[in-house]
Design brief:
mainly alpha; disordered C terminus; disordered N terminus; two-stranded antiparallel ribbon
């Protein structure tokens, strides 16, 4: 009994792990199916646009719109109310928030549409308007780049959160070459019914040679059972079937050729757009590099100017300190040599201060002023003034040599 209990417990654990792996496998298959069907729907839409105008009556467009709606609604979180209940939410709620950064977007115009009331209908109207504006790929790319908003609206395992999201924007880029014409008041904007995908145009089954022969034998047996008397005259229909098969093969080859031609045009258009984007990014990179070089040069020049100004200020500060020291020494020498001429010394000191204030703050003038106001020059002037051989102005005027004849 104990072994049975342990075996049952182990089986329960294995069953929980198996359920998790099965759910992960189902989610991966669902994502892969939706992306593959989306790629097929885009190709069929491009092929149909070569022969007729795409509008609401086109089954290729209706299927594409259903696929895109299923992709954008895959694992979309519900909106939690105040009472803790979770109400369903449409992909339009995510697009309305994530696509606000698109330049000249149509979000406000769709919000103000009178004939569109439900959130699902607004999302379907947005798909049509974005296709007519040729900006559907730009909307999807902008929304997917806003990873924070995308994470807030979708659960783990959603297509828009996986690696398939990068493929989605690239697939939708080829729709910019198609001219769409939609009526925004038609039945396609009815938000009461969910979108249903028609998988039959994309289903393809190839049989081997053995299976084909067996099918032919089954058809012959069915034909013989229907007619009670089977005669050799019934040999004619297989020839007709062979002709029809050859005709069908030629038709399929022609369709494959047209499909390949359209894919070639699509890839060329995609390559041209990528080259334009690359050239624009290269030019912007060159402009940014030039701006960086200009800013570096400007910073270097500004640094050199600031260093030169600092050196000049330091020189001026040193000259001011030397002048203050000289003025103090001159005042001390005046008081020690001739106390009676203190007033005259004060006048000379005021004159010296005025001279030092009025002169230019250059090192050459500072040296000149320092030589004139030194203590040695002042002593030599006082000694000359007290010398007896110094002639007075009155003597010069009264000398006989200067009197008029």
């Amino acid at each position: 009994m104990a072994s049975r209990g342990l075996g049952g417990l182990g089986g329960g654990r294995g069953g929980s792990g198996g359920k998790k792996s099965l759910s992960a496998r189902n989610a991966a298959v669902e994502r892969r199916n939706l992306i593959t069907v989306c790629r097929f729907s885009v190709k069929t839409l491009i092929d149909r646009s070569c022969f007729e105008t795409i509008d609401d009556s086109s089954p290729e467009f209706n299927n594409f719109a259903a696929v895109l709606e299923q992709i954008l609604s895959h694992r979309l979180k519900g909106q939690v109310t105040w009472f803790g209940y979770e109400s369903p939410r449409s992909f339009w709620d995510y697009i309305r928030v994530a696509c606000r950064k698109v330049s000249q977007n149509c979000i406000c115009s769709i919000e103000n549409m009178e004939n569109v009331s439900s959130s699902r209908a607004k999302g379907r109207a947005w798909i049509r308007v974005a296709l007519m504006e040729k900006h559907l790929s730009e909307y999807i790319s902008t929304a997917l780049r806003d990873f924070k908003t995308t994470r807030r609206f979708y659960e783990d395992g959603a297509i828009v959160l996986g690696e398939e999201a990068n493929m989605l924007a690239g697939m939708l880029l080829g729709l910019n070459a198609i001219d769409f014409s939609f009526c925004l008041k038609g039945e396609g904007l009815d938000g009461t019914f969910p979108a249903v995908i028609d998988y039959t145009p994309y289903l393809k089954f190839e049989q081997s040679s053995d299976s084909i022969s067996s099918d032919e034998e089954e058809l012959r047996t069915f034909g013989s059972s229907d007619s009670e008397s089977s005669t050799p005259e019934n040999v004619g229909p297989p020839l007709i079937m062979d002709e029809n098969s050859w005709f069908n093969k030629c038709k399929r080859v022609r369709q494959k050729y047209q499909l390949t031609l359209e894919q070639k045009g699509y890839l060329e258009e995609l390559l041209r757009l990528r080259e334009n984007q690359l050239s624009e990014s290269v030019s912007q990179n060159k402009i940014l590099l030039q701006r960086i070089e200009d800013s570096d040069l400007a910073h270097k020049l500004e640094k050199e100017q600031l260093e030169y100004i600092i050196v000049e200020l330091q020189d001026q500060l040193k000259s001011y300190q030397s002048l203050d020291q000289l003025s103090a020494e001159v005042s001390l020498s005046q008081t020690s040599l001739d106390p009676s001429h203190s007033q005259e010394g004060d006048g000379k000191q005021d004159t010296l201060n005025l001279v030092t204030e009025g002169k230019e703050d250059t090192p050459s003038l500072l040296g000149l002023c320092g030589s004139l106001t030194s203590v040695a020059s002042y002593k030599s002037l006082t000694s000359l003034k007290s010398n007896d051989y110094l002639a007075s102005p009155t003597a010069e005027m009264t000398s006989p040599g200067l009197t008029p004849s």
